[in-house]
Structure formats: structure tokens, C-alpha cells
């Protein structure tokens, strides 16, 4: 499954908070080495868990979303269901992200 980019606050409100689906959001920055390292693995997860919608947001380009979510460290992965944030994983911890998907989104 493709990972779609959130490009504005309106986009975030519609696709994340307005969604009834299980959603995971990767909050990243272009300058973040850990973000670049985990990106292909995050894409692998999107291909494995096709019932979950995967999104990413560049916190430098869409700062108002980063501020609203309280993102302080990159990468931060946030899991949402029915438009509500369920949990988050701070850091490039693939096994913790996958466990979060299995526990909270499936």
C-alpha cells in the first residue's frame, strides 16, 4: 500500500482525524537520519498491514500539525482509530511500531 503524504492541516483533519479507519502517521523531518533509516521498513509494514492506512507528515513543512500533535522527537509514529489517537511510538523502533499495530489497530 502506498504511504500518503499529509500536506496541510486541512489534509490532516480530513484524512487522520476525520477517518473511521485504522491509521498510522509517521511524523518525520528530512534532516533526521533515523527517519531516513526507518522509512523503507515503514513502507514494508504498509505492504504487510494493508487494512491499516499509512500516512507521513514532514513536521517542518506542516508545522501546525506537529504543534497540534505535540511532536518533539523524530521520528514519532502515532496510531489513530476512529479519528482518535490511541498511542504513539517515539523513535525508530520497528518492533514496537508493529506491536502497536497488532495490539491497537487490528
UniProtKB/TrEMBL annotation:
The record marks 26 as: Deprotonates C-terminal active site Cys. It holds the Pfam family Thioredoxin. CDD domains: TRX_family. The record marks 33-34 as: Contributes to redox potential value. Residues 1-106 form the Thioredoxin domain. The active site is at 32 (nucleophile), 35 (nucleophile). Disulfide bonds join 32-35. GO terms for molecular function: protein-disulfide reductase activity. PROSITE patterns: THIOREDOXIN_1 (PS00194), THIOREDOXIN_2 (PS51352). Keywords: Disulfide bond, Redox-active center. Belongs to the thioredoxin family. This is Thioredoxin. The lineage of its organism: Eukaryota, Fungi, Dikarya, Ascomycota, Pezizomycotina.
